[in-house]
Amino acid sequence: MLISIANEIERIGGRAFYTGGYARDLLLSGHADVSPDIDIEVFHLEQEQLAAVLSLFGVVKTVGKIYPVFKIKGHPEWDFTLSRQDNYAAAAARRDFTIDAIMIDIISGEISDYTGGRQDLAAKVIRHTTPEVLADDPLRAYRAASLAGRLGFTIHPETLQLMRKADLSKVPPERIAAELKKLLLLSAKPSIGLRYLEETGLLKQLHPDLYNLIGCEQEPKNHPEGDVWEHTLQVVDQAAKLKVKSGNPLALMWAALLHDIGKPAVTKRREGKITAYGHDTEGAKMASAFLHNLRCSNELTHSVMVLTREHMHPVLLYKQKEQITDKAIRKLADRVDISELLLLSEADFKGRSMERDYSPIRNWLLGRIMALGLEPGKRIEPLVKGRDLQELEILPGKKYKEILDKAFELQLEGKSKDEILQAIRADD
After folding, report:
1. What is the bridge-based pairing of β-strands 154-155 and 125-126?
2. Are 266 and 362 found together in one domain?
3. Where are the beta strands (DSSP E) in 188-291?
4. pLDDT tens, 228-277?
5. Whether residue 301 is found in the same domain as residue 401
6. How far apart are CA 247 and CA 183, in angstroms?
7. Among residues 223, 210, 151, 221, which one has the least CA distance to residue 176?
């Protein structure tokens, strides 16, 4: 249908091109199934003309007032924009990076490249189109790092220099969060982009709590990879390999980035050893604040906070597996999604510059979970509820929660519903 739309645009004197990330990925992959989102830039038409053409193919709506994006109902992946330039070269120069300034004629397939984007694609280099593009929108400095991680490209030295000068202090936090989300979710190796944030000073400017991980020492025996920042970079790369198994990959990747954020606050030397006792609970609070400051949703923030707080438990429990009670396993399963926790724990376990086999830990914990009749990823349903207390003729009141909490505690110990109700009767 896009070709039909492009033909209709051409019929009334316009021209339509694939642009941006879609054109870039199309050239990189050589086939059309590269991205769910397609950017189309239209030249030589007025807004009313473009809207009239698109209305022939469905209900049209516009998003944004200053630079409107036209969309057709039923095709949310298509974004039509009108170029503010009739000159193709000038339009290309307005884009941020050369690899995103390539245009492909939808009808003929003709490629227009006015900034050297194809050469940079071949060299796997991210380079700005003009110095002004980063000054006009400083977030593009962050986007360069994100693209480097997503594509596995290097950033041109002159672009790095512009990134070092970028001031993102007035950029809305949610825009920064969106770029970091792309880096974490779309990269095979997010560490590439994160290292560029460190190198250009953006990490220090935007995320001081992450910057503080640099130089934070760890016990060499447990962490031969080096400081907490190096460990974190390796963990996010490991998590990127595992995220396909996750039911909530965004929470997993954020937790991988933030799981040790509490270490600088608690790291000490004790009897010649480097320790970080309590970094999990401290990190949970800091991770929550970190995501809150980026205006992430409460649901995401809570999920990441819980994973950060619990990330050490699978390994710690395994080390004491002969002494671990069923109650301890049930309590863990009630606090956190075990399936997601195991993915984070595995990434943490493997992010250490050495080969390590996580399967014994995973198999042991899943075995204990299954033996107790629990289902990974599902919270434990209380056996005793309010209606059961009413049947015991216990009147609703302040004691209800206290009684229900005690009932659940007995359930975690392995007591049956009848045994729990007998205990409640005895205490009443």
Report:
1. parallel
2. yes
3. 268-270, 273-275
4. 999 999 999 999 999 999 999 999 999 999 999 999 998 888 877 888 89
5. no
6. 18
7. 210
Angle between the N-to-C axes of helices 139-151 and 157-165, in degrees from 0 to 180, rounded to the nearest 10: 140
Note the Cα 83 to chain centre separation in Å: 32
Note the pLDDT of residue 35.
60
Q: Give, in order, the Cα–Cα distances in Å from 245 to each of 140, 305, 339, 340, 376.
A: 31, 20, 9, 9, 13
CA dist 418 and 401 (Å) reads: 19
Question: Are the beta carbons of 287 and 296 closer than 8 angstroms?
Answer: no
335 lies in the same domain as 273: yes
Q: Give which of 412, 413, 417 is closest to 383, Cα–Cα.
A: 417
Q: Are residues 370 and 402 in the same domain?
A: no
* Same domain membership, residue 33 and residue 55: yes
Query: Both 230 and 296 in a single domain?
Result: yes
- The range of the structural domain enclosing residue 195 comes to 124-200
The CATH number of whichever domain residue 99 belongs to comes to 3.30.460.10
Last residue of a domain, one of 200, 219, 251: 200
Q: How many residues are listed for the chain in this entry?
A: 428
**Total domain count, the chain:** 4
Question: Residue 34 has what pLDDT?
Answer: 55
Q: How big is the CA angle at 144 (ends 142 and 150), to the nearest 5 degrees? A: 105
pTM given for the model: 0.87
Q: Which of 165, 200, 235 is the last residue of a domain?
A: 200
Q: What per-residue confidence (pLDDT) applies to 31?
A: 57
- DSSP-assigned letter for residue 128: B
